Amino acid sequence: MDYLIVLFRTFIFYVLIIIIYRFMGKREVGQLSIIDLIVSILIAELVAISIDNREESVFLSILPIFFLLFVQILLSNLSIKFPKFRNMIDGVPSIIINNGKVNFKEMIKQRYNLDDLLTQLREKKIKSIEDVDFAILENNGNLSVFSKYDSRVGEYPIAIILDGQINYQTLRKINKSQKWLEEMLVKKKINLSQIFYAFYSNNSLYIIKNDN
After folding, report:
1. CA neighbours within 13 Å on the CB side: how many for 173?
2. Largest Cα–Cα distance of the chain, in whole Å?
3. Can you spell out the DSSP letters for 125-137?
4. What is this structure's pTM?
5. pLDDT of residue 25
6. 163-190 pLDDT per residue, tens
7. Cα distance between residue 161 and residue 169, in whole Å
8. Which of 8, 85, 140, 172 is the least buried, fewest Cβ under 10 Å from its Cβ?
9. In 3D, which of 27, 22, 21, 28 has the Cα closest to residue 44?
10. What CA–CA distances, in Å, run from 3 to 37, 57, 96, 125, 149?
């Protein structure tokens, strides 16, 4: 009888987790944000405890699981509406190699050592740091690499405006001021609130308007 109870609970949670992850959205495991990862770990722990503890009602585990789902959806919606909140929770991509030069200060800030860098470069089939034009450490820990020998790669496109919000850190990196950006928007006859995404590459500002 105990075996049947365990199998029944396992099946219930199997179906439940499928439903929950459908609500959480489509992301690969390697693309999970910090919030998604924490929620996933907590759900796994709750399911394991509930399957093992056959004396308590299964609904005592289902309730906190749905609560975690609610929290995850709430925080995801806040991240979409408020870029600063998203940056606070998920962080922002870090430029580790810029124009072939290693940014050791950023590596120390991200607690990312040289062994980590070399390992991930080898995974990208890059033999030497000297072969890299740009390398960006993404929020999920993956390293995006642009080789010097890739003819498609020009200057790395750096996001200046995202969801109508100016990234002042990016402006400082490219040695531009807010006044310069405002003058560029005036020339293009577009307001900041109309911009969904704007990036700087090859000494030019490229803008994607917000359809909404």
Report:
1. 20
2. 76
3. T---GGGEEEEEE
4. 0.56
5. 65
6. 777 877 778 777 888 888 888 888 888 8
7. 11
8. 172
9. 21
10. 31, 16, 53, 49, 60
Q: How is the beta sheet containing 143-147 ordered, strand by strand? A: 101-102, 94-98, 132-137, 143-147
Q: Which amino acid makes up residue 112?
A: Y
Q: 210: which 2 tokens?
A: 């917000």
pLDDT tens readout for residues 15-64: 888 888 777 765 555 566 677 778 888 888 888 888 777 777 778 878 88
Between 149 and 13, residue with greater pLDDT: 13
Distance CA 203, CA 212 (A): 28
For 64-79, give the DSSP string: HHHHHHHHHHHHHHHH
Quick one: tokens of 131?
């072969």
- Residue among 142, 205, 200, 149 nearest 170 (CA): 200
3-class secondary structure, 161: strand
Distance (Å, whole) CA 60 – CA 50: 8
Q: Rounded to an integer, what distance in angstroms lies between the CA atom of residue 135 and that of residue 190?
A: 32
Tokens of 18: 């499928």
Token pair of 10, please? Answer: 């396992």
CA distances to 33, 69, 124, 143 from 138, rounded to whole Å, are: 11, 25, 15, 6
